[in-house]
Amino acid sequence: MRTRLWLTAFFNNILENGEIPAIFKDTKIIAICKPKKPNNLPQSYRPIALLSVSYKLLERLIYNRISPIIDQVIPKEQAGFRPHRSCTDQVAALTTFIENGFQKNLKTTAVLVDLTAAYDTVWRIGLLTKLLELFPCLTLYKLMNEMLSNRTFVVHLGERHSKPRRLNDGLPQGSVLAPILFNLYISDLPNTISRKFIYADDITLAVQNNKFEVTEKVLSEDLDIISTYLHRWRLKPNINKTVVTSFHLNNRLANYQPKVTFRGSTLNYDQTPTYLGVTLDRQLTYKRHVENTAVKLKTRYNIIQKLA
């Protein structure tokens, strides 16, 4: 009971003054090597951020206050980290769009935009500007600026650890507020002719027509609009990982590869792209996805069998 009263007074003081203890800005990052990746390359490791439990409780209090208002300005195309929305819903939305095109004998061309370290490259001043426009409250502005500024982290790898490093931009990993703040940050994505399917930082543009030439032109023009927006808000697309794909039932055009340009480069074509964990194919047969799932299940079954 005393602990609860103390925490209540402690959090109320923070919310009233807009200042947080310096210890709340420290992050411990555990580096874990990804499966089947060489352990001598930095990109082979997955960072797991550990934050103070008290700090995460504070974030949850703030989240409960601001999330209903932020949710009102997030476009319906965004399904990431929203109430009653999930990856499954977004996959169903995209595949339903494609299947409706099948019924109308239309070809669907889609671009899966990959952002490089999207959460880590969020421009703090830009985010705070958008937050202040939505919440004209200087105390909240001061508090969020405190929570995002002068953060430090230490990377731990086994028994070794790095020196403390400072974070100037980006959203803290493991943060309760990070997902909804990122949703707010890209909530003003410009309108496009192509249909947008967004899940957190996964942005997919899709357009339908009976001619590939039309879908290619529309997507290239829409990507120019998106590119300008990303440049303005300092988000970096990964051109090499951004791919174009197509969905249709015309077997004579089975090997056709749509040519879509993004920032002066022709995008790579992926015949079986993975969208939110689901491997898609031209006719939505899900054959490759089922095969991949069967391999994973067999591997895990063998492991369980050895342990039994």
TrEMBL record:
It comes from the Eukaryota. The gene is RTase_72. PANTHER family: ENDO/EXONUCLEASE/PHOSPHATASE DOMAIN-CONTAINING PROTEIN, ENDONUCLEASE_EXONUCLEASE_PHOSPHATASE DOMAIN-CONTAINING PROTEIN. GO terms for molecular function: RNA-directed DNA polymerase activity. InterPro entries: DNA/RNA_pol_sf (IPR043502), RdDP_mobile_element (IPR052560), RT_dom (IPR000477). Residues 13-267 form the Reverse transcriptase domain. Keywords: Nucleotidyltransferase, RNA-directed DNA polymerase, Transferase. CDD domains: RT_nLTR_like. It comes from Sipha flava. This is Putative RNA-directed DNA polymerase.
